[in-house]
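Request: Have a read of the protein record below and say how the chain folds.
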Amino acid sequence: MHAIVRVSCYAGVLLASCAALAAGPMTDIANQRAHGAVPPAASAPPAPVPVTARPAASSGATGATAGHVSVSPNRARLLQAQVVLRDTVNRSAAVARNTPLTTQMGARKSFTNSLASAKTPSTAEQVAGWPAGIWLVNTQERDVSLTPGGYVTIVGKGFGDAPGQVYFVGRTTDRAYLFQVLLWSDQLVLAVLPANLRGVIDQEASLRVVPRDGQTYMFDGATFYATREEQVLTSNLDRVIELRANVNGAFPWAAVMTPAGSVVRHYDQNPQSNIFVCPPPGTDVLAFKPLSAGFVVSGISATFGRTDTGSRTDSAGKSGYREFHPGYALGDWGTTSLVLDRLQSVTVDEIPVSWGVWFDHSAKGDFSFGYPDQCDSRYQVAVWVVGPAGVQPF
């Protein structure tokens, strides 16, 4: 007795291991070591994780089409985003370092207002009368970006002449991350966040300066933006994709996507019945849900089902035939609206996936009991995402 082989096609994807490197708590900050004070060149974006899409070894998978890949039009921008921000931050730090303190302070509205009511018109004297603390970071009173490889020029007073410590505390992670101090004086500190900092998500942050006397000065108007890295997801894809399955009108052939990214449509005909007509090919749409921790979808790979044909034999090599009705393909990227919880609507990326139909007919005379004809259509996807280096999306 011969069994009909049912096709199972899987997309095997190389998933890079991204170990999260968690920094120590604030009590351990003195034990942290800063490295990589010089940021990488702007022309060298973070290298994406290698991606491989291939059918896994599986019984009956012969005839499966090779992996297909489509990257988002935004992929290059997503990978370069942190590099662009870092270079902007470093230009601001350089301007602050080379601009006299009185000029920087004179440009601040809060300072000029107090200067107008001062008894002395001397800017230098007015600055000398300000209390100790952090006044400006990269010439800004607030909305300062902190990023790996990014410099900060901190202007203020009361830092002392001997180098102390500079670090930021994340509002989400509640951990402290140490800068490397390059210059230190009573009114100016230059420091850099190590370029190899990983395992930290994007978040609001508080910048801290701690002089040798133990006094802590805080600057709360900061945001940390992590180095970007690309990963490939092959599980939990139901948390990434909303499948908008094609239903072919009068002959519905609905489908769902498994957490592993598999979409299968399969019909077996009654073994004693005549040949029947398969549903026609169709097109699904994959809408990508918003992700947490700063992750964004950057590409997709897909492996498709059987496309082999034959006029003399069925899938078991017996009398019959095989037909394929095109066609499998990844379409062009676009955008769509997605309704979230509380009926909030957001605009997200989407991509169509066209699927074909494979028909296997077994001649009933060749078998004692007969075997069913079958209609089969299937594909499996893996999703690429760009997000904070050393962090997992889920």
Notes: The first helix runs from residue 75 to 98. Residues 339 and 345 are 4 Å apart (CA to CA).
